[in-house]
Amino acid sequence: MTFHDLDAHFRKLEALSHAQAMLGVDEAVMMPEGGGEKRAEAMATLAAIRHDMASAPVVGEWLDRATPSNDQQVAAITEAKREFVNLTCISSAFVKEQVEARISCEQLWRRLRPSGDWPALVPSLERVVQLAREEAAMRSDALGMAPYDALIDQYDPGSKSATIEKIFTALKLFLVDFVPRALDAQNRRRAMRPLKPFQATFSVDSQKRLGQDLMSSIGFDFHHGRLDVSHHPFCGGVPTDVRMTTRYRQDEFLSSLMGILHETGHGLYEQGLPKGWLHWAAGAARGMMLHESQSLFVEMQIARSPAFWEFALPIAKKHLALDDWTAEDVVQHVHHVERGFIRVEADEVTYPLHVILRFEIERDLIEGKIEVRDIPEIWDQKMQDYLGLSTQDNPKDGPMQDVHWPGGAFGYFPSYTLGALTAAQIRKTMEISLPDVEEQIRRGEFAAIKTWLSQNIWAKASFLSTEDLLVSATGSTLSAEHYIQHVERRYLS
Amino acid sequence: MTFHDLDAHFRKLEALSHAQAMLGVDEAVMMPEGGGEKRAEAMATLAAIRHDMASAPVVGEWLDRATPSNDQQVAAITEAKREFVNLTCISSAFVKEQVEARISCEQLWRRLRPSGDWPALVPSLERVVQLAREEAAMRSDALGMAPYDALIDQYDPGSKSATIEKIFTALKLFLVDFVPRALDAQNRRRAMRPLKPFQATFSVDSQKRLGQDLMSSIGFDFHHGRLDVSHHPFCGGVPTDVRMTTRYRQDEFLSSLMGILHETGHGLYEQGLPKGWLHWAAGAARGMMLHESQSLFVEMQIARSPAFWEFALPIAKKHLALDDWTAEDVVQHVHHVERGFIRVEADEVTYPLHVILRFEIERDLIEGKIEVRDIPEIWDQKMQDYLGLSTQDNPKDGPMQDVHWPGGAFGYFPSYTLGALTAAQIRKTMEISLPDVEEQIRRGEFAAIKTWLSQNIWAKASFLSTEDLLVSATGSTLSAEHYIQHVERRYLS
């Protein structure tokens, strides 16, 4: 009976989450500006209604008394308990205080970022950090793990700072040496074949049709999803109705297309979750690391590979004026490596260094080893050490570039790079059962790849821990090894 | 304190209604087909959550104990009580049974309508009628009014069948005689100036821009609303974010444009409701009769008037290939009168006869004077009497044309025609304070008209009864007199 009660309860929460997800999409894609105030009010109220319902004491009783009748139900109850503890170990009053501090700091950050006025941001950010430390302490008690781990656990259940640090340290050592080698190799290639400039104007409609064609080829199901435009691209909605967005520039077509294919990876994961469990926590995607692994698998392992462009360029030529382009011309663009200040503009070679820097700083911040006022100096030093760039007197292109910390999302950054490593590990493992995977990509055949991902990742949802899922899919725990082989092969030739 | 409790309570209900409204819009405008099943589930669950919250016994206690501190609060409590009684006088179990019967009958109707298989629909429709009679009896007890009146009250609080009957009888007598006279006049006009055929193809984009231009001119606020495409045009969303839709055909432009301007009237009413009270029942639009009066005011009193086309044709010519069209050519189209079978295709002269026929039948149905099986014969007889058309052996174009009865919406039909009469009465009254209203329309100046409607209708929301609102706005209760003058002036010349 209690399992049935829980099932009905989670269907109610699912309906509220459905509304929240779709209102979020509508806000970004459709809503006129004047609708914003009332929408924000409605969203806050829906969140409060959902929180009250989800954290009601009776739910804890159902979870304690539940007698699951098979392995799947056992895993579902375990995951539901994990979510319930995470939800109830923080008081509503604290959550409210924290949400207000975050919203206020995020708004301040939006105002100050253009001028890079770091000192004016400090007091507000200190407040957010202070509350994050308190949250980490409370979660640490409830979950029985170290404070920073308890924050990571919100985004990537089971990931531990010590493990991440080991992987990141090896990766950092490799990349600091590898980036200059990749740049040298790029210079040699460019000397023989200069980067082809974009000359045509690429209409939004044509780019959209190309994007939709390639999404369909890779396996996105437009019966259960669509592609729209928003200022910040995202993959939202619900698994039965995945709403992806992008934005277009008309002077080139690759940044939008790569963005679309990246989000397609997220969308495929959502569409591949087990339909009967969507209202249970166990039926959701496992965490941000695996989610990012799916988007980066499609973007980095498929869409930026030379094999893909042998298939995709003829299709692109149907939509865009690219008559004199070769696959090699496109590949030069999508393999471009450059040291830069900005994480979101970074390529797959330099990107992990941006993430590792943030991981090291936020870990020390939460552990109280450093303070907000120390960040710019540490940031500058690490940027010099890792990428040879100084952000001294330039906080705009330093610690003020990301929304994560003003928004209170400590523990999120590692998943970007853990996802990139996972994607490379998945690709390597896939070659065992699909030895001609590269040939399949070259021919535009994605059915077998999709089946592999569906069976080994998507359908598993959250019925396994991240680590167990990864071991069951790839035969080993996460390492940087496959990523390292991947970038050596791609960027040193 | 209880007023504050109620205020917070109604904000929660508002957030849920906001979600329901926007999910409804998204479903019609954006949702891919595969999202439908889960969406329907989420919508049903949200409705149940809202119903449980709205009908909680504590709300009744708050309403009983509330001590309003001003006239506005008194009216707000009165209206909230009315809504609470309406909500709680029917058990959830009955509502569930009724919703299931309606959905099943509506789905059956969709399947059977194309073939016009009335006998196959009868048992399902009988069930819906039986439940409507039971509902009417329960509401009649709780509200202290006649059963059919209690159903009308759901759509148009305060409207009474006896009053409607008096007005409709006079109107019917007039129109049965008037329609042939209007057709004669039309024939005489056409003999001198034939109806100009549409020749160009009108692109969707151009029609949309024209629609938006005219919506803006009339006063629709695109900062708080937008215009999209859906299969069935509607005006949805929330007052701070009004979502209007239309559909376009490319062989002519007037049916879509008139549809847009009709919905604009609904949209203006919503946008004009008092911002501080939107979460209270008293802050909502007064009822379907007044809502329809606003859409028909814009459509019939403004957009189909010759004066309007002197202003609008030059704008239309900027968007569409109408170089050789005169305002008079357009007016001939928008004043076209024709006896037909189908209500939704009827013009403003014949439309009320379709409504009166339905009113008379559904009233007798609810009162148990006739049965479902009697409908086709009665329908045919009334169509012959009122419009000179027979629907014998043609139920597809007779009682099977509308979704209202299969969907259980008994008591809704009268508001269409009551709205048309109200619009004419408003227009006549407006001429007292704005004697040059026709000139203003001719010049495309709508500010004074908007101010009048805002002050006399929109801002009043539901703080007055429909009758008090109408008397305060126009100086008298509803009569057919102004509508009769209006059609005589428009169609006999």
Short characterization:
The structure is a homodimer of 493-residue chains. Chain A is mainly alpha-helical and 493 residues long. In chain A, 65% of the residues lie in helices and 3% in strands.
Question: How is this structure best described in words?
Answer:
The structure is a homodimer of 493-residue chains. Chain A has 493 residues and is mainly alpha-helical. Chain A contains 20 helices and three strands. The first copy, chain A, has helices spanning 2-29, 36-54, 57-65, 71-88, 92-112, 118-143, 147-155, 161-192, 204-218, 254-271, 288-303, 306-319, 327-334, 351-366, 375-387, 414-433, 437-442, 447-456, 466-474, 481-491, and strands at residues 225-229, 235-238, 241-246. In chain A, strands 1-3-2 form a three-stranded mixed β-sheet, with helices on both faces. In chain A, strand 2 (235-238) and strand 3 (241-246) form a beta hairpin. Chain A is globular and about 70 Å long. The N and C termini of chain A lie far apart (62 Å). The mean pLDDT of chain A is 96.
Summarize the helices and strands and which ones pair or pack.
The structure is a homodimer of 493-residue chains.
Chain A lengths: L1 H28 L6 H19 L2 H9 L5 H18 L3 H21 L5 H26 L3 H9 L5 H32 L11 H15 L6 E5 L5 E4 L2 E6 L7 H18 L16 H16 L2 H14 L7 H8 L16 H16 L8 H13 L26 H20 L3 H6 L4 H10 L9 H9 L6 H11 L2
Parallel strand pairs in A: 1-3
Antiparallel strand pairs in A: 2-3
Helix pairs in contact in A: 1-2, 1-3, 3-4, 5-6, 6-7, 8-14, 9-10, 9-12, 10-11, 11-16, 12-13, 14-15, 14-16, 16-20
